[in-house]
Amino acid sequence: CKEVDSVVDEPEPGSNPHDRLARWREELGSLYRTGRSAAASRAQSLPPVMTCLGEHVRRLGIPRDYFDDIIAGVEMDLTVSRYATFRELYQYCYRVASAVGLVCLKIFGTRTAEAQTYAINLGVAFQLTNILRDLKTDAACGRIYLPTEDLKRFGYREEDLLAGAYTPAFVDLMEFECRRAQEYYRAAVAALPETDRRSLVPAEIMRAIYHTILERIEACRYQVFSRRITLSPPHRLAVALKAWLGSRLSRRHSTPAGLAAR
Asked: Do residues 255 and 189 touch, judged by C-beta distance below 8 A?
């Protein structure tokens, strides 16, 4: 997942991201058809991760669709810079984050339908948190992930966001977007099966860290243009430790499990 993400976010000098993503699709296609990558068949060099991916794909039974979704999501950052509706943004979040979570479920050995619901909702929550935290840096790259329908609803213009304008309309918009992200965190917690809680400890640690970042965005009244909201290493460690302990001691929360794109 990191390798593919770097194709767009950290491209090599002189490389064409579209061509590199096409090569990843070719390699995955060959891997799933024959058990060997296309490059290996031609005795060409491979990214190190590809040399061992085939074994894990077969052993863990990871569907190719998950990898196809991840590549399609990363590719959207090359072709899409605006999202008209949340439904469109949800598709992006699913591809770049929820699909990664579904791959992780296979690695963790978790196969229940409830765990899949958990992973999907958590992935959307993570990506929404990233979007809210990184409004400034994304705008500097010409990308606006917040749905156009939401900007219009609160009377906050695209030009305002690109200029980093902190206005009452922006505060109202961010309150709405943070509430939406909170809904997906709650839905993930509600779907977490007790039987899978131990195997999902890494995911629960990540949930605690990202949720804390969202809470800090809310606590500073959405001042994301003047600072990048992060957790210090000691704070991150404390949050992770608390989540690790809580995953063994807490009881299941009773809130609705599933959310559609809305």
From this structure: yes
In whole angstroms, give the CA distance from residue 239 to residue 208: 6
Q: What is the mean pLDDT of each run of 10 residues along the chain (262 residues)?
A: 80 82 88 66 57 80 95 96 98 98 95 96 99 98 97 98 98 99 98 89 95 98 96 90 77 52 62
Distance of alpha carbon 179 from the chain centroid: 17
46 torsion bin: left (phi>0), alpha (psi -120 to 50), beta (else)? beta
CB 186 within 8 A of CB 102: no
Task: Please give the CATH superfamily to which domain 82-262 belongs.
Answer: Farnesyl Diphosphate Synthase (1.10.600.10)
Given a contact cutoff of 8 angstroms between Cβ atoms, the answer to whether 29 and 23 are in contact is no
H or E segment and range at residue 97: none
CA nearest neighbour of 37 among 63, 58, 26, 7? 26
Measured torsion, CA atoms of residues 180, 186, 191, 194, in degrees rounded to the nearest 10: 160
Q: Is 43 exposed, middle or buried (0-12, 13-18, 19+ CB in 10 A)?
A: exposed
Start-end ranges of CATH 1.10.600.10 in the chain? Answer: 82-262
117, 258 Cβ separation under 8 angstroms = yes
pTM of the model: 0.88
Q: Which of 129, 63, 64 is nearest to 93 (CA)?
A: 129
